[in-house]
Amino acid sequence: MAATVKYDEVEVGQEIPAADYPVRRINLVMYAGASGDFNQIHWNERFAKTVGLPDVIAHGMFTMAQAGRFVTDWAGDPGAVVDYGVRFSSMVVVPDDDEGTVITVSGVVEEKLEDKRVVIALTAKCADSRVLSKARAVVQLS
Amino acid sequence: MALNRDFIGRASAPSAPYEVSRVKIREFATAIGDNNPIYRDREAAQAAGHPDVIAPPTFPIVFSLGGGALLADPELGLNFAMVVHGEQRFEYRRPIHAGDELVTVSTVTDIRSVGRNEFITVKSDVTTVDGELVCTTYNTIVERGGAG
């Protein structure tokens, strides 16, 4: 494992600049196929509405993967992520149009641990709602 | 309908081994929009110190989706139409790489009511066929209105 970020060059409180991750229906269809999660709430608007949802919503795991990508892009080597957990606090509603929606992820170095590990606290927002809470990744730096 | 509390502590039989392939990792990486070469190019992965391409941190959801058989048991009483994901965590001993053959054992660790919703947490230990622990996942799903 070879993270490109060096432990000694990272400070608690250091911010990782926000990044935008667009989401359209096609991304949910691809995610359904790749993950094997074919729950209809992620692709069938008619069904989503019958179970009380406003529209099709993204898989929570799709959102988690976007915030994961934010961390692995920062770390350089995805294998440096040794622990990653989130709570899904709000839905990512994905309309059936060419725009879709956008998940914005930002992060801050929350804590420096032993063995050159750091805790990254993540914030993921969509349409002004926090879609993840208690989102933390532990990254092995070099 | 309230979930059957008798399921707390219940464990699944070990899964059939899941063979991690480069093709599946690439498909998953594409689906999450991630072009990182360490997921796609063996040489890039080896340059980073891995034996082969590795899988994104959330990849185990592909083969450990909520402890499958446990949650699908009609005796549990889970209505999948009302299910949303509550929490998810992946704890790694090492990255998963192409060529791994992985066995998953899932255990229901908790079932609880919060307001009108039912929460069920499943812990899954992912080991190689030789018994090496690679990753532990924690999955909490919410049945909306289940406790109402």
TrEMBL record, chain A:
Gene3D superfamilies: Hotdog Thioesterase (3.10.129.10). GO terms for biological process: fatty acid biosynthetic process. It comes from the Bacteria. InterPro entries: Fatty_acid_synthase, HotDog_dom_sf, MaoC-like_dom. CDD domains: SAV4209_like. Residues 12-108 form the MaoC-like domain. One of its GO terms (molecular function) is fatty acid synthase activity. GO terms for cellular component: fatty acid synthase complex. Belongs to the enoyl-CoA hydratase/isomerase family. This is MaoC family dehydratase. It comes from Planobispora rosea. The lineage of its organism: Bacteria, Bacillati, Actinomycetota, Actinomycetes, Streptosporangiales.
UniProtKB/TrEMBL annotation, chain B:
One of its GO terms (molecular function) is (3R)-hydroxyacyl-[acyl-carrier-protein] dehydratase activity. Residues 7-136 form the FAS1-like dehydratase domain. InterPro entries: FAS1-like_DH_region (IPR039569), HadA-like (IPR016709), HotDog_dom_sf (IPR029069), UPF0336/Enoyl-CoA_hydratase (IPR050965). It comes from the Bacteria. Pfam families: FAS1_DH_region (PF13452). SUPFAM superfamilies: Thioesterase/thiol ester dehydrase-isomerase (SSF54637). One of its GO terms (biological process) is fatty acid biosynthetic process. HAMAP family: UPF0336. Belongs to the UPF0336 family. This is UPF0336 protein Pro02_57350. The lineage of its organism: Bacteria, Bacillati, Actinomycetota, Actinomycetes, Streptosporangiales.
